[in-house]
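Team,

Forwarding the record for the chain on the shared tracking sheet. I've put the sequence and predicted structure together so nobody has to dig through attachments.
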Amino acid sequence: MAIAKAERLMNLALCLLGTRRPLTKRELRSSIEAYVESFGKGDDGGHDEAFNRMFERDKDDLRELGLVIETVEGLEGDVGYLARRDSNRLPPITLDAEEAAALGLAAKIWQQARLAGAASGALQKLRAAGMPLAAGDDAVDAPHSALEPRIPAHEAAFEPLMLACRDRRPVVFDYRKSNAAHPERRQVEPWILECWRGHWYLAGWDRDRHAERVFRLSRITGKVRSRQGAFTAPVPDHVTVRETVEVWAGETATGTARIRLRAGHGYPLRARALTVRELGDGWDELEIPNGRGLDAWLVEFGPDVVVLEPAELRADVIDRLRAVAKG
C-alpha cells in the first residue's frame, strides 16, 4: 500500500513538473496509471467523487513535501494544475571550507550507522559538482588517517531508537541499571540520542515515573519495541536535552572528589583532573570534578580506581561494584 501510494505521488509530481501548460483533473486522471486502474479514464463519469477525494489528498501530500503546485483557471473556466520547474528548483549549494570539512568528517564518523550509505552518496554527488569536501582528501573512501574522529554505534538498540526519535514514536525496552541485578521494563517517549565519552545515551520521558530520564544504550537488554500513539509530554529543545545528558553523565560538576588512580591508567580521568599528586608504589592521587553520574563512570575503571572522598561517592561506587559482582 505504501509503495503504491509513493509511486502514484511520484507519477503525479512528474506529470505536473513535465507539462508546459496546466493539466486538468480529467487529463491527469487519464494520464496516471494508478488513477486509471482505480477509477478508469472518466469517460463514463463514474467514480468521480472517489477520484476527486484521492486527487485532493495526493495534491496536499505533494505540497506538504515541498512541491509548489499552481492552480490556474483557463479561459473557458477549466481549472488546471502545474508545477513550474523554476519554482521547484533548489538554489545552488555553496559551502565554505569549514562547512565542507565538517561534511567530510561527518561521513567518516557515521561509517557504522544506518546513514553511512546515504551520507556517502550525498558527498559523492557534491564532489561530482566540483565541491571539495575535506582538505587533502580527494575521495570519499580515501584511506583513513592515523588520527580520525569516530562515533561507533555497536548497540543493537541504536537503530530502532534513532528511528523512534525521528518519527516521535514511544518505545518499550528492558533496562538494567548499573546497581541492579535484573532489568526492568521501561516505557519511554524518546527525544534524542547523544554520545558522551564514547557511550550512547537516550534522553526521553519515562511514562511510568512521569519524569525525564537518560538511558545508556549498552544497558538496554532485548529488543526495542515501538508503540502506537502520540507523545504525552512536550519535547524540549535540543539544547535542553543536551544539558540533561550532560548533567546525568557527570559533565556538570557540583563539587570535587579525591581518588587514587593506578599509575599509567585512567587517562580520561587524568585529562579532567584538577590536581595530580604522585603517591608512590604505582599510585597517584587525583582531585576531579564531581557531578551526577560520576560513580557510574568510576566503576568502569574497576580495580584501577579507589575513591577516597566524599563518603557518599565512595558508598555509591561500592554499591555498584557489589551489584556487578552479583550479576
